[in-house]
Amino acid sequence: MYPVYPAEVEVARMKLSVVIPAYDEAENVKPLLDELYEVLDASFPENEVLVVDDGSRDDTLRRLLEEKENRPTLKVIEFQGNFGQTAAIDAAFREASGDVIVLLDADMQNDPRDIPRMVARLDDGYDVVCGWRFDRKDTLGKRFTSRGANLLRKIILRDDIHDSGCTLKALRGECVKGLHLHGEMHRFIPALLQWRGFKITEEKVNHRSRHRGKTKYNLFRVGRGLMDMLVVRFWQKYSARPAHFFGFLGLLSSMAGFAICAYLAVLKLGGESIGDRPLLLLGVLGIIIGLQFITFGLLADMLAKIFFRDARPYVIRRVHD
pTM for this structure? Predict the structure, then answer.
């Protein structure tokens, strides 16, 4: 039996939602749910488990539906095709109704026994608890790539999380409201929530070797993740004021172009020929590119204002009336 945490998390009055994206994990469905429900039955009487079948090509969906017959709190979300892990997580977040949401991988490398301890940490005043695979059981190549990606993430996004790639997370339900995920952005959930003002911490968790199924990890996902990282960084700083970013680039380019043209004008007044000089083309090009950047920034600013008419760029924790 696993420990119950009534004093810290008030499980009798708290509903826990467990979100699991699954793609070609037929062999893991039953052992994962057996292990997970043993933990939930011991520590979280009121629960729901949302498994998203992301267009699996094996028997994942069939086995999930078989398990659902004996598990009333299991909800299976079936995708029409394979849309990716981020889309699966986003869909489950929108369906989840728990006070606390736990995100879990379907490959059984995350240990469900860590869930009560992570949920209990929320009672320390945190909104998100991220798992930290301190002792990873992955291959050397995967660990090396992951460390490089984590280093880049810290430089670009400047978050304080050691292992953003660990799927196991515990979040308060209000954290995912208004959170729109796309691309490979599930890896940057901590950075996105930190930007929105939520308090984030991490907890060392058990990481296990994969014994069934095949990994979905490849180098193409690394490239897509890098591009999404740049998008997240831009969105963090300039989503509500894109004209500042593009306007700054435009002013730099225009000023450089005007300076070059002014220099050539002085030479022209001195009697020198400037018509065949490359600097003339460079100066004119700098002015044109600068004006385009400024125009693009103004258009982007208008689009941002339209977007934020309904989606506010901030989160209100509480109104003190």
Answer: 0.71
